[in-house]
Specification:
By secondary structure, the chain is an alpha+beta fold. It contains 9 helices and 17 strands. Strands 1, 2, 3, 4, 6, 15 and 17 form a 7-stranded antiparallel sheet that branches. A 4-stranded antiparallel sheet has the order 5-16-7-14.
Length: about 325
């Protein structure tokens, strides 16, 4: 039964997979039966909305990967559960919603890495122009803050940012900067196991480029391989010319110092060591414990349509990690 399978997610895989004939959003039935409060589509990532609580999983270009992440891990109250449904299964290589148990990532990270990140914490830097455009050299700045927050009034934007404990700074030409500092590790709310809980692997130009390189190596896609080489060079150029904190997305240590290439590579290696790839089939439903299991998306070609719903926001506790307090 659904309730039995759901209880198993707390101690085993932290995911639940089901399959239904499509007609047209069958996953709303188990989704609604959980009696959890639902979240409307997210202010900080407004996608295409299908229904009030159902929206496209991502509008990110199909030829780029989405690195592993716990949804909205950089905010104080991420959604507790995520519900994905496949409306159009990818036919090409790639396109999987890859999964990773971030408790295993914590376990496999080196002691020096964990200690350093635990003591310094992480600061997220995001920068947005007022209006969205179709192209910018820094593609993370294509979306403007009017679309991001879905309002045009600066006072409303400031109110929303304050609610999410973000520091907002207005710059020239109505450009906006958002910063916030967060713990890189959390304890799972049910098992109390420590886990990696950070958007570093998403909010860093170099790590995104290397993610594409790994994905291309996995599928053998020549275009993605060539693109990844270009993006690696381009990422280093942007970081050198503009500085990380002036890019659309960036992550530094809490004291403002930059995160080394060796730390980035180590994190990415550990995450890829623990990745799970499952091919989508039409009508599949995937339920994820967003407090322990990350998700990402592998690049693909052709058609693919995955929708998602969020429920039950969970406020992070930021409790001490016992083994790192020693």
């Amino acid at each position: 039964s659904l309730s039995l399978s759901l209880s198993l997610t707390h101690t085993q895989t932290h995911t639940l997979s089901l399959s239904f004939p499509l007609s047209p959003f069958p996953f709303l039935s188990p989704y609604l039966s959980l009696n959890s409060p639902f979240l409307p589509h997210p202010v900080f990532s407004p996608p295409y909305v299908y229904l009030q609580y159902v929206f496209s999983a991502s509008e990110f270009p199909h030829y780029l990967p989405i690195p592993q992440h716990i949804e909205m891990s950089f905010l104080p109250a991420p959604p507790r559960w995520l519900y994905f449904c496949c409306l159009n299964a990818p036919t090409s290589a790639g396109g999987e919603t890859s999964l990773c148990d971030f408790r295993k990532v914590f376990r496999d990270l080196s002691p020096d890495f964990k200690k350093r990140f635990y003591e310094k914490k992480l600061t997220y830097h995001r920068s947005y122009h007022r209006k969205s455009v179709s192209f910018r050299p820094d593609m993370t700045q294509i979306k403007g803050w009017e679309d991001l927050f879905e309002v045009k009034d600066k006072a409303e934007v400031e109110k929303d940012a304050q609610q999410d404990e973000l520091t907002l700074t207005w710059c020239e030409n109505d450009r906006m900067k958002l910063t916030n500092t967060a713990e890189p590790f959390q304890l799972h709310p049910d098992t109390q196991e420590p886990l990696w809980c950070s958007h570093l692997q998403v909010f860093h130009a170099r790590m995104l480029a290397n993610e594409l390189r790994r994905g291309a190596a996995r599928t053998g896609n020549l275009f993605q391989t060539i693109l990844s080489l270009f993006l690696v060079v381009f990422a280093w150029t942007l970081l050198f010319v503009k500085g990380g904190k002036n890019l659309g997305w960036h992550t530094s240590f809490g004291d403002g110092s930059e995160i080394s290439k060796s730390d980035q590579d180590h994190l990415q290696e550990v995450i890829w060591k623990n990745l799970v790839f499952e091919r989508w089939q039409l009508g599949d439903v995937l339920m994820i414990d967003n407090c322990g299991v990350s998700h990402g998306r592998q690049p693909y070609t052709g058609k693919r349509k995955i929708v998602v719903g969020w429920s039950e926001p969970h406020r992070k506790k930021n409790l001490p990690i016992p083994e790192l307090e020693k």
